[in-house]
Amino acid sequence: MNKNKRTIVIAIMIVMFLVAFEGTVVTTAMPTIAKDLQGYNLISLVFAAYLLTSAVSTPIYGKFSDLYGRKKTLSIGIIIFLIGSSLCGLSQTMIQLIIFRALQGIGAGSIFTVTYTIVGDIFELSEKAKVQGFLSTVWGIATLLGPFLGGFLIDYLSWHWIFFINIPFGLLSIFMLKKNLEEVIVPNNAKTDYLGALFLTIAIVSILLTAFSNSINYKIIFLILAIISIIIFYFVEKKSDEPIVPFDIFTRNIVLVNLICFFIAGLLMGIEAYTPIFTQNILGYNPTISGLTMAPMSISWILSSFILSKALPKYGAKNIIQLSLLILILSSVCLSFLKVNTSIIFLIIPLIFMGFSFGGIFTTSTIAVQDDVSADRIGVSTSTNTLIRTLGQTIVVSIFGGISTSSVTNYFNAIGMNGITSENVYSSKATTIQIQNAFYNGIHNIYSILFIIAIACLIISLGIKNTQLKK
Fold it and tell me: Shortest CA distance to 301 belongs to which of 356, 361, 353, 365?
């Protein structure tokens, strides 16, 4: 890897760290922010606004990067993200913070997808696995450092600085990209598919609102709206000269790989969301130990990228994905055997193997969806894969949330303590052991479902054609 490429990778990792860090540090700072701005009832909207706009903008940025170039598209996205961050830091009310978080999310959509597209453009196959493994691992590092650095900024400065700190690093990454990323853009007179973008936006927002909503009636309304929007979007795209999502990119391999990514992204989110709860609420460890428990998974994810750089060209995407899924299945089985009094080491060991499997699946799938399309479709293919992962995380983890909360309630109903839920359990008359058992009941059910999801994905992978990846 030459100096130019190293600088580009560093720039991409910096900006990727910013969006990953923002996700974890805002979670840590939210109680302080809500108290200062007096808006506890609006906390969920601070996260929802960011998630919605980043998801919606992802496929649009992918198309723009194909039409107008990666450097320009990513730089614009970073600038929007930094403007949103600045305004978030200056917010005086929760409503302002929600609006500016939405703006921040619009910028983040570019970073989520164009960074991986640039890697697909400029690196050889053996290098792609390493670099994309590095990018994926940035999220794990940000998850570990976010709470510590966020806590430091809040304690010694103020919560405003968790947003302001993004600005110098974001500007540095733009400068590094401008100086080192060279690309040839073929002039074209393509018209932007605004109508397609509109109906895609309505469809994505409706799908996410279906997942977020607690009301069955609202879920049905949003689901119907999503279906109608998808149908209209399909016909609009078929007639468009430059569709936001060209349907001819959906080869058999890309469809199957994206379907696997949808479920595995949800599975990963389940691990990241509920393993800390298992560590703290069931095993009784503090948040610091809980965070460190997840660290080995990030480390093994990094190591997987070095293995993949050698294995991918030799064995192909299908074999790597299937081996990774087999490891994931065995790891999920180990998690399902955990008990209330299990030693933490028996939790860490399967997480280490899961890091290898997640690295294998996500890195290989990104390379596979880029490899199966022409150079002028890499951006939109990568962004579609990113969007599908986001939808998988949102939809599957919302299902896990329902399973967890209902399992806690069912446990207490079964022992004759009606009316106790996950929301009021700590203010109830339940004993510590009963609370541990209730949470264990919910998370054990989730871990068992992880095994079923991994099996289903292995079956899906049988349909992938093991074509030779391009150098």
Answer: 356
Q: Do 221 and 287 fall into the same domain?
A: no
For residues 412-429, give the mean pLDDT: 81
Distance CA 199, CA 458 (A): 33
Rounded CA-CA distance 15/131 in Å is 14
Q: Are residues 104 and 216 in the same domain?
A: no
Burial class (CB in 10 A: 0-12, 13-18, 19+), 361: buried
Please check whether residue 94 is in contact with residue 34, taking contact to mean a CB–CB distance below 8 angstroms. Answer: yes
Task: Tell me what pLDDT residue 147 has.
Answer: 66
The DSSP annotation for 342-381 comes to --THHHHHHHHHHHHHHHHHHHHHHHHHHHTS-GGGHHHH
Measured CA distances, 97 to 51, 56, 66, 77, 167 (Å): 14, 19, 32, 19, 17
Enter the pTM of the model.
Answer: 0.79
Contact 325, 458 (CB under 8 A): yes
Give yes or no: residues 93 and 206 share one domain.
no
Q: Which residues lie closer than 8 Å to 180 by C-beta, 6 or more apart? A: 4, 7, 8, 11
Identify the CATH number of the domain in which residue 14 sits. Answer: 1.20.1250.20
Residue 352 in any domain: the answer is yes
Q: For residue 185, is it within any domain?
A: no
Q: Alpha-carbon distance 122 to 109, whole Å?
A: 21
- Per-residue pLDDT of 62-77, as tens digits, reads 877 877 788 888 899 9
Length of the chain: 471
Q: Which domain holds residue 290?
A: 249-465
Domain total for the chain? 3
CA distance 161 to 129: 34
The reply to whether 452 falls in a domain is yes
Residue 186 lies in a domain: no
Q: Exposure pattern of 96-126 as b/e (b: 16+ CB <10 Å)? A: ebbbbbbbbbbbbbbbbbbbbbbbbbbbebe
Same domain, yes or no: 283 and 390: yes
Task: Determine how many CB atoms are found less than 10 A away from the CB of residue 415.
Answer: 12
DSSP annotation of 244: S
Whether 290 and 432 share a structural domain: yes
Question: Cα angle at 313 between 311 and 318, to 5 degrees?
Answer: 75
Question: Do residues 146 and 228 both lie within one domain?
Answer: no
